[in-house]
Write a structure and sequence with these properties.
Rossmann fold; 8-stranded mixed β-sheet; hydrolase; Alpha/beta hydrolase; AB_hydrolase_1; hydrolase activity
């Protein structure tokens, strides 16, 4: 971890709960999904049951190219403590985008905020991964009354340094750029589905060979399903552009400027082997959050909630326990 993180003990002291958690079984299928219209927006969501006396809800927001199924195992780990709702953002998973949706980060954040407000359950535990982390930061900064605490897994904070060298296949980022993207996507789509699945796993996981066959088969099915959705590729391409544009806004509107305004307990989780959002941004992200702490996981890639769900769950419960004790 960087020197700056070492000089800020609150950033590095992340408690791991001793609470009993169910074993992680990656053969468990995704939680059932359904379309819901809440707060004036219609999303496909996957709900996780929780205790009858739970006083709040966890809301999970996936990253670029992801879906609600990215939270299957973490939501299962936390189901004994809190009910959960994993969202398919507009244009992703099974959520058809509304006409005229512009796929900017503010537009996605507005959808999430409207959905949370419509739930009527008070402030929620908000989880976000990658682009979903950037969206969650914006929601927490603009709508603090909706968020009880945050868990940010490799949030896509602004980073304008060249990053193609971190990608094993340079065609992947090119696939979602204007003009050249259409040609590249067609070339990639012509490849065998299993080849595409393994490329995705190598990109997102530090140890892709440890991902069980059941999860690889789920990923393959999602790829095939999305190919049948006319809006899927345009949504992915335009959300990619929207994310990059969010990094180019004036400093007054940058996520780096908004982050210090978030005064809720926040756990920042990053994998040392993240190929998509460099772990070098982790200490700065946690340090800028007034109540932020950082957990850096070795041998972990871009989706720690999928690769290390038990560890992320224990850190999350540790945060909740310390918040309840007034020590976070």
């Amino acid at each position: 971890m960087s020197t700056s993180a070492a000089t800020r003990p609150p950033v590095t002291r992340v408690p791991l709960s001793d609470a009993m958690l169910p074993p992680v079984d990656m053969s468990t299928p995704p939680w059932p999904g359904r379309d819901e219209t809440v707060g004036g927006v219609t999303l496909h969501v996957r709900r996780t049951p929780g205790p009858a006396d739970a006083d709040t809800t966890a809301v999970y927001v996936h990253g670029l190219g992801g879906s609600a199924t990215n939270w299957t195992d973490l939501a299962g780990q936390l189901a004994g403590h809190v009910p959960g709702v994993a969202l398919d953002l507009p244009g992703f998973g099974h959520t058809e985008p509304p006409p005229g949706f512009d796929y900017t980060i503010p537009a996605h954040a507005d959808v999430v905020a409207r959905y949370i407000r419509g739930l009527g359950v008070g402030p929620v535990h908000l989880f976000g991964n990658s682009m979903g982390g950037a969206i969650s930061v914006l929601v927490a900064a603009r709508h603090p009354e909706l968020v009880r605490d945050l868990v940010l897994v490799s949030p896509a904070m602004p980073d304008l340094r060249p990053w193609l060298s971190r990608i094993s296949d340079p065609r992947l980022p090119l696939a979602y750029l204007p003009l050249v993207g259409t040609f590249v996507r067609r070339r990639l789509a012509a490849e065998d589905t299993q080849v595409r699945v393994m490329r995705l796993l190598r990109l997102c996981f530090a140890e892709p060979d440890r991902i069980p066959l059941s999860r690889r088969e789920e990923a393959a099915r999602e790829i095939v399903e999305r190919e049948a959705m006319a809006w899927a590729n345009p949504a992915l391409a335009r959300s990619t552009v929207g994310l990059i544009r969010s990094w180019l806004v004036p400093p007054s509107r940058s996520l780096w400027t908004l982050t210090p305004r978030i005064d809720v307990p926040t756990l920042v989780v990053w994998g040392t082997e993240d190929k998509l959002v460099t772990v070098r941004k982790a200490p700065r992200t946690a340090e800028l959050l007034p109540r932020g702490r950082l957990l850096v996981l070795p041998r972990t890639g871009h989706v720690a909630q999928m690769e290390r769900p038990a560890t992320v769950a224990r850190a999350t419960l540790g945060m909740w326990e310390q918040v309840a004790a007034g020590t976070w």
